[in-house]
Amino acid sequence: MKRKIRIGVFGCRRGRTYIKTVYKGGLDSDMRITALCDANEDKLKEAAALCPSGRYAPKLFTDAGEFLKSGLFDAVILCNFFNEHAKYACLFLEAGISVLSETMAAATMADAVALCRAARKSKAVYMMAENYPFFRSNFELKRLYEGGTLGKLIFAEGEYVHPMSPDENAGISKAGPDGNYHWRKYLPVTYYSSHSLAPLIFITGEMPKRVVAMAALDDPAHAAEYGRLRPEAAGVMLVTTESGAVMRVNGSSYMGPKGNWYRLSCVNGGAETVRGHLGSVRVAYNSWAVPDGAEKESVYETVWAEDGEAAERCGHNGGDYWVMKYFGEALRGKRAPFPDVFTACAMSAVAILGFRSVMNGNYPYDIPDFRSEEDLKKWEQDRLSPFPPASI
């Protein structure tokens, strides 16, 4: 009988979601949570209560160094602050511990370079915990695109719009022990772009090569009500891909209405998720390019190809289940991780250089090839960051 993968969770607020996913999704047949770490003891106890007790209860840590050196886990889920993932990912990879990293892979170009180098040297696996590609509608768009009937991609769009009330925002962005710092206060409007971009990469296999961006300004009173220090309400990026297609994506957007939407426009036709109905897709072909046996246009509800019941028991429209399922399979050598470190860092570069484009009059920036040491050297000293140098 194969040994279960031992998982450590670093950061127990968002980390609770992954703990629930392991047990609610039935993934505890292949992995178990063996260690938890958080400086906040209340969050630590809340997370521990979601795990088995007794012999299989996870060991609890408030010190990151002791957690790292404990030897209690084969892989770690990084759920710490948005802008601090890369430095911890490097430490764990250097120790031979596989990494599943939440939100943004890197907050600076230098961080992205260091992360790629650490992952390349390590025998451990790196994967970004990006869950939006794994909606059942996006699985269906991937199936349609790979089927070839739509033809070459010309244009794609990805939207992630998630407005929150001031109370909801305050609930997830409570200040640190110093009473002031939280990354959400400083978050540039292009930075949280993986929910819009990653699904398009997953569906099409296209990689970003250039970005140009612009931002829409918020009402000052509205921004102040949320405690944000940045004046922008929405960031829009045009991303040119390796094949010459263009993708329009957004970052964190403080506007309404809430929703997600993904669209492919190709030579022979197009496909998209249905606005307001995330599980449905619309497929339409040009009248002269309808495949034999197909309808010119159809709208239908998608279904899971597999593991539907398990996915539906987990969060983010089943996406959390597939993140953990894919990570487990990557650790077992059954599939390549998605997003891998090079894709994750390319998406980070879109976010980072997208904001630089906003600040420099919509100047276009080339996205480096993170597999190329020549490209890495160009950015290894670029530590320009919108976040304070010392965070909690």
Please give a structural write-up.
By secondary structure, the chain is of the alpha/beta class. Helix content is 32%, strand content 23%. The protein is built from 13 helices and 15 strands. Helix 5 runs antiparallel to helix 12 and helix 6 runs parallel beside helix 8. The protein starts with a strand and ends in a 13-residue tail after the last helix.
Count, helices: 13
Report the principal-axis shape: globular
Identify low-pLDDT runs. Answer: none
Classify the helix fraction into a percent range. Answer: 25-40%
Measured distance between first and last alpha carbons: 42 Å
Number of strands: 15
User: In angstroms, what is the radius of gyration?
Assistant: 21 Å
- Strand content bin: 15-25%
Brief description of this entry?
This protein has 392 residues and is an alpha/beta fold.
Which properties best describe this structure?
392 residues; 9-stranded mixed sheet; 23% strand
Please write out the topology.
Elements: E1 5-10, H1 15-24, E2 31-37, H2 41-48, E3 59-61, H3 64-69, E4 75-78, H4 85-94, E5 98-101, H5 109-121, E6 126-128, H6 136-147, E7 153-161, H7 166-172, H8 194-204, E8 208-217, H9 220-225, E9 232-241, E10 246-250, E11 259-266, E12 269-274, E13 277-285, E14 297-301, H10 308-312, H11 319-331, H12 341-359, E15 365-366, H13 373-379
Parallel strand pairs: 1-2, 1-4, 2-3, 4-5, 5-6, 7-10
Antiparallel strand pairs: 7-11, 8-9, 8-15, 9-10, 11-12, 12-13, 13-14
Helix pairs in contact: 4-5, 5-12, 6-8
